[in-house]
Every structure is written in structure tokens, then in C-alpha cells.
Amino acid sequence: MHKYFIAIHFFISRNRIVSVFFAFLILALFGFFASKIKFEEDITKLIPKSERSDETAKVLGQLNFTDKITVIFNAEKGTSSNDLTEMATVFLDSLQSCDAYINSVQGQVDDENIQETFGFVYENLPLFLDDADYEKIQEKLRSDSVSETVSVNYRNIISPTGIVTKDFILQDPLGISFIALKKLQQLGTSDDFILENGFVLTKDKTKLLLFINPKLPGSETEKNTLFVAKLKSIQENLNTQFKGKTKLDYFGSALIAVANANQIKSDIQTTLFISMGALMLILCVYYRKFFIPIIIFIPTIFGVLASLALLYFLKGTISAISLSIGAVLLGVTVDYSLHILTHYKHNSDIKTLYKDITMPLIMSSTTTAVAFLCLLFVKSEALQDLGIFASSSVIITSLFSLLIIPHLYTPKPGESLERKTVLDKMAGFAFERNKILVLLSIVIIIVSLFTYQKVGFNNDISQLNYVPSDIKKAEKDLESSTSLTSKSLYVAVYGNSIDEVLQKNRKLYQDLSQEKNENKILNFSSVGSLLLSKQEQQKKIDKWNSFWDQNKKSNLTDQLISNGQKFGFKPTAYEPFYELLNKNFGQVSYEEFLKIKALYLQEFVTEKEGFFTISTLIKV
User: Using CA atoms, how far apart are residues 289 and 468, in angstroms rounded to an integer?
Assistant: First the structure.
């Protein structure tokens, strides 16, 4: 094989200008395609995948809980909740500049949404009632209870609040809708909050919370970087504007993901700078020349750019984490140039050089490349990228070392090989003849036989994340007032049919309700009591029809009319309620449920390409 390299060497020597032109052309092509590759900054790419985990990843990709950004407004001492709502209102106005990145903002409830929700529940009452609710309704049907209800309704109507409550009372004198509305509480996991001035506050009124639902998942760090920058700008402006009154903080996976991406980039630059600096220093000390270390790095540049160009054609992307191995590759690849330089010093005959060095160098790079290629059998996408990048870099660098180094460096005749540097003295020291070192090595090996099994592995995957100090502080603030940051479990049911998934989710809801009653879990947030399969909906409608038989409806109507006349109510005052009792209820599609803005059911139910998931959040 060395004969081919000898022939190429002499060809280049005879055509230097053309060869240099082609070398720069090749380098430019490698650089062009390498610049086109996209860097994947998702740290979860390190996690091994399997056929089962791919399905899990598909489900996780459709969960909406994890990407939510919590906006925390903290009240300073001596301030009121009005200051919090004022800052939140200004924040919402400022957030309009981020519309391109936001799906919705939760935490503010307006009258329109409340009326829409009440109307939907009222029009579909049977779907929100269970057996326990019918027992409560039965109690309300007693004669004394109906009489008391009409009396209370009258007092409420003539009170100042009657302007607002009158229509609700006449539509539903028994308050059945309010029994049904309690089912909506199951969508929350905490009792730590109150509603004031249309905003969600903690019970102690020291914090106001808003929740941003981004359009992009947390893994889209490149685009989210701009979004986070805008949020930070809003934060700085408002904290300055409301200094001494309130303070704004953020907490969320998108912020952590962007911080991780920035930290990865910073770490790559730092490690490469340190490794290159250290190698340059060592080589300069050893060779006592500045240009030789530069020559040594040239084949590595060709190898790295060629590998990135290769990955561009194979995949189009590369995990940024894989590039962090660049510091290690520098140490491996410069060895090939060093081998050539050392042999060239011993024998300046080019034919002898290639005969002695070609096969060992290619074999060395091949075995190293094969070792890296073993990573292709690992079920981690980031490690697979590393395997391709590292193996191709090693092979290509060794080839370019053989082609380039002998042309860029020629030893001077009679140049001494003897050195008296610190590195030479260290290399000349016979470690194997030092009895103390040999004995110490034996002792270490023996001790290691008894201690290696004690090495543990960190199973906490969250430790992979880098969390900035300001986000850690925001997390602690949340922990002090709410259970939002307490340990959570996400359970998802999935399938290719919405009805099938709804049935599974209903079973999960029933199981979790039992677990909560037995105090095995703190709480859970589920749509299991709201979103029902067609079969379950029909059961509830049949239950309603069987409960409200003709005799029961007639008795209730007579009692409402007779008791109402005592307070001046017309016989037709409760006509909307009578119509409700006689209504023929039908099934409701899950799409109709999703249209109710105040319920935010899109947080729980997602569909993509015919694949449905329904998620449940459990606090343990």
C-alpha cells in the first residue's frame, strides 16, 4: 500500500500549484457541506432507545404538560394583590410581541369563558353527573327542600347580585349545574390557589401565576432561544418598572433546554480551546518551533470537516453533544502527524518513510475507527452520531496526515534528534525499573479488586440537565407556596381510536380515584370524569332519563309553581328548567369538548396523524 502513497507524493511534488489548488478546493467543499449540517441540542438524545422506547417517545412527543412555562409574579413586603394583577396585566400586553411562539396563556379567567363553560355543562348535564350526584338531587326533591330552595332563590334575585344571578337561577333552580361543575375541579391537582380579579393567586396572595403554552416543544432550542431572549427582555423591563413592589420570574422546561443548549456550546468551545492550547504548548516546548504545531493540526482540520460533511449527507443533523468529543479526537488524531514527524527525523528518505509508516498508521487508525463504530450498536442516537463522527475523523485524518505532512515538513540535514527538554527527560525515565512504582502499582491493582464493585451509577436522569441559578430560585419559590414542583408522574393512554383511548382513560380514572381515597397518592389531574366514550355517554344519558320519570318531573314542576306563587313567581318562571327536564340529550364528540376554552382540554388530549393520547398528571 505504501507504493500508492509514494506515487501520490511524487505527483504532488511535480505539480505543487495544482495540488495546493485542489487541496484548498477540497477543504472548501468539506467546509461548505459541513456548514450545512444542523446541530441537535436535545439532551435526551443520549437516552438509549428501543422499539418500546420509540413508542414511548412518540407518546411523550404529544404530551403538553412538560413544555409549559410558569410565569411567577412575587409580591414584595407591604404590597397588595392589586400590584400583582397590575404587573400581570402589563406582562400580558407585553407578551403580544411573542405571539409567534405562544399557543395560549392560562391563568386569567374572563366572564365570557365562565358563561361559555356554564352553558356547555347546562346543555349536557347528564354527562357530568354520577350516582352520588343523583343522591344529592334526590335530597333536593323533598317538599321541604324545594320550598327552602325557592325561598333562597327569591332572596338572591332581589339582592344586588340578582342582576347577575337571575338567569342562572331561573334556568336551574335546584343548582344541578353547580353539582356538575364540581367535576371540573378534577382538572386541577392542587387546592393551593384562589381566583381574584380574574387571575390565579396562591392562597397567601403573595404570588400570581400565569402559564404559557409554547407553540414549539422544549427540544426546539434553536428557535426557542429567540423566544427565551424576548421573555428575558420583558422580565428585565418589568422588574425595573415595578421595582420594590413586585418581581417576575420564569420556570419551565423550555428555559432549561435553552440553558442546556447554550451550556453545551460553551463547554465545547472551552474544552476545544483548553485541549488545543495545551497541545500547542506541549508541542512548542518539545519542538521549540511555532509553525510545527500548526502543521500537525492541518490534517485534523481536514478530518473533522470531512466527517461533518459525511454526516450531512448521511443524516443532515448531528448531536451537539457528540461534538464535545472533539477534545479527545484532537489528542488521537495529532498522534498520526507526530508519528510521521518522528520517523521523518530518523530517516529523511521519503520512500523509506512511507514503507515504514503507511501500514502501521492505517492499521492504527482503522482499529480506532472500528472501536468507535461499535457505538452504532448502541440504542442512543447521540452515541451513534459520535461513532460515525469519530471513526470517519480518525480514518480521514490519518490519510491526510500521510498526504500532507511530508510536504509541509522536511527535516534539515544533520538536525540533532537529541533533546534536553522536560518531556524528553520524562520519556527517558525507565518507569518499569523503579521498584517503588512497580510495588505501588501492584498494591493499587490488588485494592481495586475489592473496591471496583462499590462504584455506583447515578440513575437520576434529571442530573443530565444544567439548571441556571435563577431558574433554581424560581423553583424554590414555587415549592414554598404550591405543590406544582412536587414529584409528578405522567401517565398516558394511547391508541389509534379516540373511543378506545377514552375507555382506557376512564378505567385509569377509576383506579386513580380509588388510590386517592386510600391515600396512596396526593392528587391527580384527569379528564376521565369529563371526556367519555360513546358507550359511557349513553349510559349516563340513560341514567338521566330513568331518574327523571314523568311522575318525578310532574311533582317537581307542581312544587316549583306552588312555592313560587308565594313569592310572586309566574307559573312560567322556570320554563327553561322544565324544557331541560324534557330535553332529549345526545352524545357529544370529543372535538366539542375541546372547543370550551376555559377547560384547556388540549392539555390532556392530543392527536397526530391518527394517533391519540390522553395524559394524566399524578402528584405523589
Answer: 43
pLDDT digits (tens, 9 = 90+) for 166-188: 888 888 888 888 888 777 766 65
- Listing DSSP states for 287-352 in one string gives H--SHHHHHHHHHHHHHHHHHHHHHHHHTSEEEHHHHTTHHHHHHHHHHHHHHHHHHHHH---HHH
H-run or E-run covering 449: helix 435-451
Q: How far is 335 from 136, CA to CA, in rounded Å?
A: 83
Per the document, the length of the chain is 620
Q: β-pairing, 488-495 with 207-214? A: unpaired
- Rounded alpha-carbon distances, angstroms, from residue 105 to 99, 212, 457: 10, 5, 40
Q: Is 454 helix (H, G, I), strand (E, B) or coil?
A: helix
For the stretch 19-73, pLDDT in tens is 899 999 999 999 999 988 887 766 556 555 555 555 555 565 556 656 788 888 8
The set of long-range contacts for 585-594, using a CB threshold of 8 Å and a minimum separation of 24, is 585/124, 585/125, 585/126, 585/127, 585/541, 585/544, 586/541, 587/534, 587/537, 587/538, 587/541, 588/124, 588/127, 588/537, 590/498, 590/502, 590/531, 593/530, 593/531
Strand partners, 453: none
User: What is the spatial distance between Cα 254 and Cα 216, in angstroms, rounded to a whole number?
Assistant: 9
